[in-house]
Amino acid sequence: xxxxxxxxxxxxxxxxxxxxxxxxxxxxxxxxxxxxxxxxxxxxxxxxxxxxxxxxxxxxxxxxxxxxxxxxxxxxxxxxxxxxxxxxxxxxxxxxxxxxxxxxxxxxxxxxxxxxxxxxxxxxxxxxxxxxxxxxxxxx
Length: 140
Fold this sequence. Notes:
Blueprint: H1 3-14, H2 20-39, H3 57-75, H4 82-105, H5 112-133
Helix pairs in contact: 2-3, 2-4, 3-4, 4-5
């Protein structure tokens, strides 16, 4: 494979539009959170994770893994309704990142995590808006 083809494949995978890097950040981050919660579900018993109270750890893992799968499915060019999947995955991811951010803001010690996860929540929300506005229009 020539260098030009490798660069084209890399660009098509990671940078086909401004939303893709945020999709990768979101899916890798959510996959990490899912792995973290699956490996230590009792962590949600701590006071610093009160924003997660309305689901058990396995529910959060299932929800996060589902969003990761939808993110990945929407990256496949042959996927039908790809634009809708990208928008939905980013909208749900923005909500999940907001809950993660809230858990850090509600914690006893506000760390850089609170600010970082708030930034990710904002970035995923704005990317979801961009994806919604830039969806391909159906031709009558």
